[in-house]
Specification:
Blueprint: E1 12-20, H1 28-36, H2 53-56, H3 90-94, H4 98-113, E2 127-131, H5 151-155, H6 158-168, E3 174-177, H7 183-196, E4 202-209, H8 215-222, E5 247-255, H9 256-262, E6 268-277, H10 289-303, E7 310-314, H11 323-334, E8 343-345, H12 348-351, H13 358-372, E9 374-375, E10 396-397, E11 402-403, E12 410-418, E13 423-432
Parallel strand pairs: 2-3, 2-4, 7-8, 7-12, 8-10
Antiparallel strand pairs: 1-5, 1-6, 4-5, 6-13, 9-11, 12-13
Helix pairs in contact: 4-6, 10-11
Length: about 450
Amino acid sequence: MSSAPAAARDHIVISGMAVEAPGGVDRLESFWAVLSEGREVIGPMPRDRGWPLGELLTLGEREGWGAVPDAGGFLDSAADFDALFFGLSPREAIAMDPQQRVIMRLAWRALENAGVNPASVAGEEAGCYIGVSLSEYGPRAGSANEFTGHRISGYALGSVCGRVSHSLGLTGPSTSVDAACASSLTALHLAANAVRADECEWALAGAVCVMGSPAPFYEFAKNNALAVDGHVRSYADDASGTVWGEGGGVVVVERESRARRLGHRIYGRVLATRINHNGKGKPIIVPSAEAQERLVSKTVAASGIDPGLVTMIEGHGTATPTGDPLELTALQNTYGAAGTGPLLGSVKTNFGHAQAASGILGLLKVLVSADNGQIAPSLYADNPTTQVDWDRSSLRLATKLEHWEPTDGVRYGAMSSFGAGGSNAHAIIAMPAEKEQDNSRL
């Protein structure tokens, strides 16, 4: 528990946010519409990226390989970009990984959402922490063509954050974060700590995923971890694997005193974030319930609140028969043991598994749910897995849109993300029940 009274601490808060997700989602309103209506926006693989669909969709015929469904959550606007708006030449823009283009748009919109003119922040000592994992866009750099000279910055993962800082003129720390599927919440953790330690006055935190190649489909087909029916059935008894997706999101983080002084809206306080690793033992790709339980317990302790206050949990929910039960065990031993009936779900059931960006979509789901006073349903949750004993804890799946009752004017949510390299991340957010700039109840 924290030793400092809540009123005496200058909390790190989220004061702006932006999202892009499959199904044409490019605004918080359309994001909430998909979630609240319980829609699934999975579609066929793109036909305009030059992917070898004939080979991809027949991988299941190889000995020991799983089937690859013609399904995923793909961004409609991944190829769209106003190069001149961001001061880039068309050739340089084409040579840029689409992940850079998407994250530049998101950073601009997040600042606008915070009430900040993005064109006015040049020279500010602000940080930028962006989660990103895989980049296989464009021709190989080891050859000469018309884009040579632009590709070193166009393909590098470090340029994903660098483009944002450069385009906005930010002079604080700028770091791309690759912790696989834990990248988003790790970026939030680093950004919040940087502001807290006065490394920067404020920061952008987020993540992006646009698949430049179908590499993830090959990897999970070989490991029999793709959903054969093209649906992400997180925590369900008939879950057969995941479905890959794309998307991105950015939040603005700053000290609460600064947000209040500038009249920024406070969407929520970042009460605590923690990261850890599974350590040695199982194969690197296999999750660890023990490591996840330690992580959650340490995050709760750092938050200074009773775990029973957390009434919405946005889980990782990859929908693999191995990963989901291990995650549920950790959650049942922590939040479930508090006995207050937190609702659990995963945004992956709506949009697919956005890999490095999955955590930021989960964070945004929690924030917009609190903003609307309702907990969005998790799809396919009416058939919970029988690999865990649900009766021994108060944890339950969010099967329908439900009112989110605040506690003393505040709603508390938690979220988890786990990476294939063994990294784990967890965060706890406190959000005001009233839409006010002066959130005195927080």
